[in-house]
Amino acid sequence: MSDLSLLTWALVLAALVTGILAGHFGWGRRLTGGSRKLHPDYLAGLDFLVTEQPDRALDMFLKLMDANEDTVETHFALGSLYRRRGEVERAIRIHQNLLAREALPLEHREQALLALARDYLRAGLLDRAEGLFQQVSAVPRLRASALDALRGVYELQRDWQQALGALRSLASIGAAPPGNIAAHYLCELAAAATAAGETDAARRLLREARAQTTAFPRAALLRADIARRAGQRGLAVRLLLTAIEQSSTLLQAELPNLLQLMDPAGRDEVLEHLVQRAATRDIEELKKLVFAAFTADLGSAAVLRPSIEKVLSQDPALQAVWQAGEGQYERIAQEIGALMAHAEKYRCNECGFSVRSFYWQCPACHAWDSFETYAIIKLR
Q: In this structure, what DSSP letter does residue 29 have?
């Protein structure tokens, strides 16, 4: 354990000991009937703390804590600390011990149920967590917290209909998350309906998704897929182009799909449109288009050449390659494209998780719409 961790635990345990002793001896209140001696186990626990054995010290103090009005908050603080440290079994034990107290006030019992449900969720015991969150959601003061946690459980289970139900219950009490999350749930349901051949149901769900938020590219992508399956190539092209214009992060994944639906003349026209659009913004937008072109093996496209030269000559990581390979434009484009095929193309702006494929929901932290274009090219 690092010196910083030991110091943190020492401070936490010092506060814990103070809370225990205050509850045990009634410090802060007028004492009657004389003094009381310290229990030997308190001294043993302090000895473990002083000798840098915080886990043994915590076990000792937990055994001695009384769940009364003075120490119950200490139980909750300690359980939360254990959960954050990943020591979920200990957090579960603390909260189960609280719930075993017959004299525990109702307010604290409800709070302990919510804490235990969070312990189960952290431990991956989703069924147990779901049952407790459902139970706690009936408590008015805890309803919003329980429903939001329950929504998270359903996301992990990929039960999108239940997740949507929990979100709508949150909306009924004025605690709903942003509308794009409901739209994503509806798109998940629409994707499943499309895969099952239920096209009408998928279209209805996508109309609901578009009503939740403006400029929602995922709905356009799914509608494009339905159009493509139905042989409506022109409509599929327009919808894919709409999705890319709404989110340039989709360029690397969707540009090849867009161009596959078009004849050569149409491809040049679309590429010219994308170049003009990126040029009116900034170099970062142009860079996204160029990197997407490399990934799609479009480095030799004449309409893209000025944009590619601009990016290669201005990007600090690629300037040396461009200068060293002057006059060998196509070879450089091919080599960079080959490098990008193995690069991590996306990164979550919430937790930093980086991957080669695009996700609407981060697999690591479960945030929605958090991936941004991010290419690490390792030049050899």
A: S
Token code pair at residue 200: 């009408």
User: What is the tally of structural domains in the chain?
Assistant: 1
The CATH number for 208's domain is 1.25.40.10
Instruction: Read off φ and ψ for residue 197, nearest 5 degrees.
Output: 80, 10
Report how far residue 346's alpha carbon sits from residue 369's, in angstroms, rounded to the nearest whole number.
12
Question: Would you say 82 and 59 are in contact if contact means Cβ atoms under 8 Å apart?
Answer: no
SS (H, E, C) 243-286: HHHHCHHHHHHHHHHHHHCCCHHHHHHHHHHHHHHHHCCCHHHH
Q: Amino acid identity, residue 130?
A: E
Residue 2 confidence (pLDDT) above 60: no
From CA 188, how far away is CA 190, in angstroms rounded?
A: 5
On whether the CB atoms of residues 166 and 146 are closer than 8 A, the answer is no
Min mean pLDDT across 29-43, 74-88, 127-141 is at 29-43
- Going by pLDDT thresholds of 50, 70 and 90, the confidence category of residue 77 is confident
Residues 318, 312: contact at Cβ < 8 Å? yes
- Judge whether 255 lies within some domain: no
The answer to whether residue 25 scores a pLDDT higher than 90 is: no
Question: Which of helix, strand or coil describes residue 80?
Answer: helix
Residue 8 falls inside a structural domain: no
Chain centroid offset of residue 276 CA: 34
- Single pTM value for the model: 0.78
Q: Is the pLDDT of residue 32 over 50?
A: no
- Name the H helices within the chain: 3-25, 40-50, 54-64, 72-85, 88-99, 106-123, 126-136, 143-157, 160-172, 179-195, 199-212, 217-229, 233-246, 251-260, 264-279, 283-295, 305-314, 319-324, 329-340
Long-range CB contacts (< 8 A, 24+ apart) of 239-247?
A: 241/270, 241/273, 242/217, 243/217, 243/218, 244/217, 244/274, 245/277, 246/215, 246/216, 246/217, 246/220, 247/217
Assigned domain for 54 exists = no
Residue 139 lies in a domain: no
